[in-house]
Amino acid sequence: MNGPEIDVSLAPELRMFAVPERRRERTAVVTDGASTLGHVIESLGVPLTEVGGVLVDGRDTPVSHVPRAGEWVEVRAVARPQRVPGAPLRFLLDVHLGTLARRLRLLGVDAAYESEDIGDPALAALSAAQRRVLLSRDRGLLRRRELWAGAYVYSDRPDDQLRDVLGRFAPVLAPWTRCTACNGPLEDADKDAVRERLEHGTRRTYDVFAQCTACERVYWRGAHHARLEAIVQRALGEFGAAAR
């Protein structure tokens, strides 16, 4: 690029996306004179899904603006909780976020998940077709134009990933109402109705069951319940009052 030079300030939360020399409070960027602000911001490594607004010389400006020499561009992070208008709040997670998908489902959050790598174009198209917020740690995927809405998952640790998503989007939590295997809704199940699906020890030990209305998987408070209950209680303690 050898066109107009502008000054860019990235919000502190966004500086992690830029190369080290661009993480200063204010950095000079030479543009090509034709690219939009959105293109310039993405060229710095920041997905537009993480941008909450742009100021040019102190004025709110769309990312379609073509910057001119000497302008000062301030790039703000998304406000939390982030509102996603246009559809009920629901998510689509890429192949690398299976644990996060299961934890969201445990809390009753609608979280579709592709356990096979179907490719970035197909994932972005599915997000658009189903109007789901795509969650990913892949910046390239979040830059795809066909994407309906998306969000970068900032941590690689499931506990922190869950807190990040709950804090950012404030979904309504309804624990134990969704199948962690397929995302379908659960309903109470009569023991006799699911008896043939149970091991002998389970039939002898447990009396309360739920069943997925989609895949018919049966649930009960087994050996892993205490660990799952701890996840639920931590989420409810910090985010249980969230409502949309």
From TrEMBL:
Residues 4-82 form the Ubiquitin Mut7-C domain. Pfam families: Mut7-C (PF01927), Ub-Mut7C (PF14451). Residues 90-231 form the Mut7-C RNAse domain. InterPro entries: Mut7-C_RNAse_dom (IPR002782), Ub_Mut7C (IPR027798). This is Mut7-C RNAse domain-containing protein. It comes from Streptomyces cuspidosporus.
